[in-house]
Amino acid sequence: MNTKITILYERLSVDDGNGESESNSIQNQRRILEEYATQNSLTPFVHHCDDGVSGTRWDRPGWIKVMEEIEAGNVSTLVVKNLDRMGRDYLRVGLHMERFRELGVRFIAIGDAIDTATGEDDFAPFRAIFAEWYSRDCSRKIRTVIQAKGKSGKPLANIPPYGYMKNSSENGGNNEWLIDPEAAAIVRRIFEMSIDGMGPQVIARKLYDEKIERPSYYLMKRGVGNRKGDCDIEHPYAWSSSTVKRILGRLDYAGHTVNFKVATPSYKSKKQVVNSPEDWLIFRDTHEAIITEQQLELVQKLRSTKRRTDTLGEANPLTGLLWCETCGAKMYNHRCMTTRTHKKNGKSYTYTTQRSWYVCSTYNKTSRQYDEKCTAHRIQTDIVEQVILELLRDTNGYIREHEDEFIALVREKSALKKGEAVRSHKKKIAKKGKRISELEKIYRSLYEDKALGKIDELRFNEMSSGYTQEQTDLKNQTAAMQAELDSFNDDTANVKKFIELVKRYTDLNELTPAMLHEFIDKVIVHEGEWSEESNHKIGRPNGKRTQKIEVYLKYIGDFNVPDNRTPEEIEAQFLAEEQAKEDERRKRKQEYMREYGREWRRRRKEKAEAEKKIS
Q1: SS3 352
Q2: Cβ partners under 8 Å of residue 413, min gap 6
Q3: Distance in angstroms (rounded) separating the CA atoms of residues 44 and 74
């Protein structure tokens, strides 16, 4: 008894033209195949289908099931409407037909009059080639349409990114993106957490703990997205760090349309490759922004800096902002935990303190190799934070009381710096231009000597290559300096940006990571200097150590708030601060001595009681 089955296979691709779609519809194919199977007694039969899948792909779910049945020996006959329904790659089509022949499977393409039971069809290879040409032509036309659409500024993404939705109103279009309030709030939170110093993994864990639906699940519930069929519905809150990274790296959230970020290398492959950022087309301010441009730039800067976490899982927000004044390298953060046990009233109390400081990375890398190329530039983290907080407080107060004077000071300082840079750059550009002209004359002279036979080909190549390389380097340096001259920003615009930033913060009692990264551009740390009375030969110097740091603010650079106090007022404030420090030190010492006395008396009492019991 024959237990093998007949498979009726249907396929419809989105690439099929409108004129062909009706005749090639899945329903039409099913009807034709069933009528043919019934009339020719090809029973029992089963259907396998791929709806909306290109014939250039061979990982089609329906086709995979067909091949599994054939390889298992369960199939006697495979029937398709036309040869191109099996696929549009003539080499793969030929290999599959040869495999059918080896396994004894009868193959029938009704529309092309192909039936392997009646013998070979000499035109079958040509039909397969024509089918592939058709697919290639469709792909070429579609690529042309996509290129034109992408260059016009319309978004190429069929599905808007998480945080946006298509405009479904009558006056709207499929190319218009509107903000999805619920998802946009999560996007803003992700950027805010990143600015606060959290890494992608920490952000993903926090969103999971708060039971926030991940993007694929959120879109699937609303019937949109690219993963409606394979979304993991059992883990709706399973955010991943890669998802967070993709959100943080998208320019779309600042209101820009980015086209041609990915491409497919061939019409036969649906695998996408990421294009170089130089090949992207960016159209600015095409839709409503979820975050500001400043937030986007700040997050990209933070992501480019590696942040080590301590034993508590925290990263110091100053990392990436501190730079060594001597060698120009970044400063490395170090932390240590100190645990102490203290007894009071018969109870033990454990205190854990954390110390944090920064050192020059060049010194840190080379000191253990006994080849120090820089000094430590060691500075306590809390001191840097205190200096920055005091600078922000003073600057904030000065701007609120003397905004016009602030603008005038920044303009004057910026004009002075620009004037120096312009003079220096123009002088260097003129000097390099003169050398470029000299090299051009030298090259012409060498060429004439070669043409007249005064020098041979090898010697000419050796000499000309060196001059050509020097000329190229000089041109590149000149172009870079000219670009710097052309790219000076408008002072007024920068000052207004900084004033707007200051007005957003009314509470400066505590230095938060968000404040730190929004206000501070960089901090230059100088090496500390000891006073003359210090003695470095003993273990702990007995002098005073002073250290200079330069704080550069966003948009305006280094700015020192004018001090209008008289020398007497400055001296009086200094003495008052010193007296307050001395009072605090004396208070701590007195408290320590009182605690020490209580502990000494308690121990003496315990000792006396113990001796009394013994006697």
Answers
A1: strand
A2: 557, 559
A3: 12
Task: State yes or no: pLDDT of 18 exceeds 50.
Answer: no
Which sign, positive or negative, has the C-alpha torsion 561, 564, 570, 576?
negative
Cα Rg, the chain, nearest whole Å: 38
Residue 33, classified by CB atoms within 10 Å of its CB into exposed (0-12), middle (13-18) or buried (19+), is: buried
Average pLDDT over residues 310-315: 56
Q: Give tens-digit pLDDT for 126-178.
A: 666 766 666 666 667 667 777 777 788 888 877 888 999 888 765 555 678 88
- 3-class secondary structure per residue, 245-309: HHHHCCHHHHCCEEECCEECCCCCCCCCEECCHHHCEEECCCCCCCCCHHHHHHHHHHHCCCCCE
C-alpha count within 13 angstroms, C-beta hemisphere, residue 442: 15
Once rounded to an integer, what is the mean pLDDT over residues 539-565? 77
- Per the omega criterion (within 30 degrees of 0), is the bond before 44 cis? yes
Report d(CA 334, CA 360) in Å as an integer: 11
- Cβ of 387: how many Cβ atoms within 10 Å? 14
Q: What is the pLDDT of residue 68?
A: 92
Instruction: Give the pLDDT of residue 554.
Output: 84
Q: 5-148 is classed in which CATH architecture? A: 3-Layer(aba) Sandwich (3.40)
Say if residues 38 and 46 touch (Cβ distance below 8 Å): no
* CATH no., domain 153-303: 3.90.1750.20
Per-domain residue ranges for the chain?
A: 5-148, 153-303, 378-560, 565-615
Residue 357: C-alpha distances to residues 21, 379, 603 (Å): 70, 6, 39
Q: Is-contact 166 177, C-beta < 8 A?
A: yes
Q: How far apart are CA 113 and CA 108, in angstroms?
A: 8
**Whether residue 289 has pLDDT greater than 70:** yes
- 237-246 pLDDT, tens digit per residue, is 889 889 999 9
With a cut of 70, say whether residue 425 has pLDDT above it.
yes
Most confident of 153-157, 381-385, 484-488: 381-385
